[in-house]
Amino acid sequence: MAMKLLSVASEIYPLVKTGGLADVAGALPGALAAQDVQVRTLVPGYPGVIARLGKAKVVRRYEALFGVPATVLAASVDGLDLLVLDAPDFYAREGGPYGDPAGNEWPDNWRRFAALSQVGADIAAEGLKGWRPDVVHVHDWQAAMTAAYMRFGPAHGVPKVVTIHNLAFQGRFGADIFAALGLPQEAWGVDGVEYYGGIGYLKAGLVSADAITTVSPTYAEEIRSPVHGMGLDGLINGRVDRLHGILNGVDTDIWNPANDALISKTYSARSLGGRMANRRALESRFGLDHDGAPIFIIVSRLTWQKGMDLLVDAIDHLVGLGAKLAVLGSGDHPLEGAFLGAADRHRGRIGVQIGYDEPLSHLMQAGGDAILIPSRFEPCGLTQLYALRYGCVPVVARVGGLADTVIDANEAALAAGAATGIVFAPSDPLALHGAIGRAVRLHGQRPVWQAMQRAGMRSEVSWDHSAARYAALYRALLAEVA
Q1: What are residue 164's phi and psi, to 5 degrees?
Q2: Which 3 state secondary structure label does DSSP give 168?
Q3: Per-domain boundaries in the chain
Q4: 17: annotated binding-site residue?
Q5: Residue-wise pLDDT tens digits, 206-216
C-alpha cells in the first residue's frame, strides 16, 4: 500500500511562485510517486491558486479559523493533488504571497501562516474522509508551525519533517501573539515556540520535528556554524542526529532543451548548434550586440545574499573583457537601479529586465553561454541545475548546493572531461573577477567549452535519487513509531 504524505507549503509551481520553494513543492510529488509515496499538498488559497482550481470539492469547513471563515478545497491541477485553504480574509489580496504590491510584508502574516499550519495539523490528526497522512512534510517558516501544532496536539504521534529552504527567513514575531496562537502554555519556552523573547515559527518547527532536512549536504554542514547558522546553529547542533542534507532536483520534463516549447529552437548535447538561434533571440530581447562575445546571464533575486552587489562592481571588468550580460530579476531597489544604470552606460553590452518572467528564463538558459551565481550563501540553488541541463556553464561561489552540484574546470577535471563549470572562493570581488576572466578565456577555446557544456548536460539533476532518499527517511520515521 502506498504511503500517504501531507506536504504543507506556502507556494507551489505552476500555481504560485516567488522562488525555488515553489519548484520543489511542485516537482517532488511526482518524483515521490515513483517511490510509492502518495502526496497531497496543502497550500493557501491565493487568488491565482483559486482561479486555477476548476472543479473543487469542499472537504473541511471552519466557522472561525483565527477569527475568519474558511474551507479546505480538494482539487487536481496539472497532476498535483491539492488541498487549498480558501480563507479570503487572509489570502484574497492583491500583491504577492507575503506582501502588498509595494513589497511591504502583510502585518498579519503571523496569523495567515499560523492558520495554514493549524489546518495542516488538523488534517494530520483527523484526516479527510478516509484519507489520513502517514507522514507530514512541511517547508520553511510559513509552514513550520504545523510541526509545533502537531507536537502539542492530538497529531503528536504522526512523524513530521521540516525542510529548511533558506535559514535566513525565520518568521519571527512578538511574544504578544502567543495567546492568539491557540497553543497550550507548555508550548511557551526554549523547548517550544519562544525565541529570544519573541516567537520563532521556523525555530518552533525545528525543535518539534522528527527530522530536519536542508536542500543540500553542504548547506546542512554550513548551518551548524555561527557564520551560516543565523542564530539557530546551537539548536541545529543539538539535533544533528536528526539533520539530513538532501539535494534538490529539477523537473526534467519542464526543463528539457530537447522539447522546450519556450525556447526558439530545441537542441541536445549532440546538437549544440541549435543554441545559436536561442542566442540570437536572447540578444534581440535584451538589445545586445550581435557578435561572438560570450554572453553571461543572471536570473536571480537582486539581493546581498545572492552577491548581486559584487556583480554590479564587476560589470565594467566584464565588459572590459569583451563580454556581454543579460539580467533578469528583482529585489533591492538600489541594486535594481545600479543594474539599470549599467545598461545605460554600456548599451549593446548590458541588458536588464526587472521582474520575473518564466518563459524568458528558459530562453536565457538556452541562449546564454554562462550563468553568474556569486552567492554569499546558497542552500541549494536551482538556476545552476537548469543551466547544467541547458549547456549554460555555471560560474558559482563555492557555497551550499553550488559546491555540491558544479565541478570546477581545474586542470585535472578538464583532462578527465568531468568539468561542468567554474567554482570560486571566497565570494569577494577579487575571486569573482578571476572567475569571470577564466570563463572568458575558456569560452575562447571552443572544444574545451563544448566539452564542459556536454558534461554539464549529462549531469544527474533529476529528483530520482533525492526522492528515494526522502522516501527512505519517511519509512525510517514510520518504523520509529511502529
Answers
A1: -90, 115
A2: coil
A3: 3-249+463-481, 272-457
A4: yes
A5: 999 999 999 99
